[in-house]
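Lab meeting, item 3. Inverse folding demo.
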């Protein structure tokens, strides 16, 4: 017997103070300050009801943007399948309220055509993503990376043709070096398909994007969404007392325990003390710091639990930093033992 509750969306999900929305570049699209990312905790190895609870909690709190990719899981493709089931079960009547994104470019299936940014890979991958997600189109389709060997023109023309086919409304670029980003944007603009958004890794500990990308994105009128705001959990209180059992560092999932050095711990502890003074958790302050940057359109969070998602949502309540606080953050980050 199926005892699953019938979902009824929160009627106050767009009430003042629930979620803030920011204009994405020079477009008519506004994105929520917090985007729900499906990279790691929504795959086939995760309990479906837990994933469903997080997605519906997000939507009930004004999160309208859902960030996926073909190889999110694990295993590959399973995060899109999870989303597709939740969409089919609960959110189909709300399709017009959602911005659903997916990407292709990294490894996905066996053989020479299952990786990279070729026209064949992108178009085949999107068709499979739409099938898994039970959608007719995505709102944003990203080239997940510049692969180093596919001509920019081939990748961008594929994106253009995807938009013109109606399978995506907008295109985005992710993990592109600044010079390749500029070349890609020029080609797209020449065909009257303006790139809507760029997605890059950005947090207090990883600030490479500040060197060239941010000024370029502003010049080109492209929005920016930041992923990994908590640096794989480093910018939380999780590792303040060592490496807990079951954590990413303990399991070696994209974060090695060797990365948690005495110097890093000293920085994190100092940042945590500052967060406490601000009345925030460290995770909230790390997200708020990104939202305090004028260049940031949205921040992608990938919570393991509803409690973590609720904590992330608390970041939008205080995104103001004094000049002294920003100086202190930079001082902490530049500390040497």
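The presenter then showed the designed sequence:
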């Amino acid at each position: 017997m199926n005892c699953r509750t019938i979902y009824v969306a929160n009627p106050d999900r767009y009430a003042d103070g629930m979620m803030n929305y920011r204009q994405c570049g020079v477009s008519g699209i506004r994105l929520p300050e917090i985007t729900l990312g499906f990279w790691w905790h929504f795959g086939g190895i995760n309990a479906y009801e837990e994933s469903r609870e997080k997605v519906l909690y997000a939507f009930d709190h004004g999160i309208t943007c859902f960030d996926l990719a073909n190889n999110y899981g694990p295993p590959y493709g399973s995060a899109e399948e999870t989303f597709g089931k939740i969409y089919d079960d609960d959110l189909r009547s709300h399709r017009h309220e959602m911005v659903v994104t997916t990407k292709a470019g990294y490894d996905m299936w066996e053989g020479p055509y299952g990786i990279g940014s070729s026209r064949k890979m992108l178009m085949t991958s999107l068709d499979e993503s739409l099938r898994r997600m039970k959608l007719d189109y995505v709102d944003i389709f990203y080239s997940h990376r510049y692969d180093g060997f596919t001509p920019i023109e081939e990748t961008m023309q594929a994106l253009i043709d995807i938009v013109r086919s109606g399978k995506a409304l907008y295109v985005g670029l992710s993990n592109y070096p600044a010079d390749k980003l500029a070349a890609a944007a020029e080609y797209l603009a020449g065909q009257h398909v303006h790139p809507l958004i760029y997605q890059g890794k950005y947090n207090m500990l990883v600030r490479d994007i500040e060197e060239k990308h941010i000024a370029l994105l502003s010049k080109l009128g492209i929005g920016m969404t930041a992923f990994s705001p908590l640096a794989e959990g480093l910018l939380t209180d999780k590792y303040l007392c060592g490496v807990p059992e079951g954590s990413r560092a303990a399991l070696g999932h994209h974060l090695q325990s060797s990365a948690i050095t005495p110097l890093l711990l000293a920085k994190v502890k100092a940042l945590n003390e500052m967060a406490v003074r601000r009345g925030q958790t460290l995770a909230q302050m790390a997200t708020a710091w990104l939202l305090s940057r004028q260049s940031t359109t949205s921040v992608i969070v990938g919570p393991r639990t509803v409690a973590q998602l609720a904590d992330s949502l608390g970041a939008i309540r205080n995104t103001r930093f004094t000049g002294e606080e920003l100086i202190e953050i930079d001082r902490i980050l530049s500390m040497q033992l």
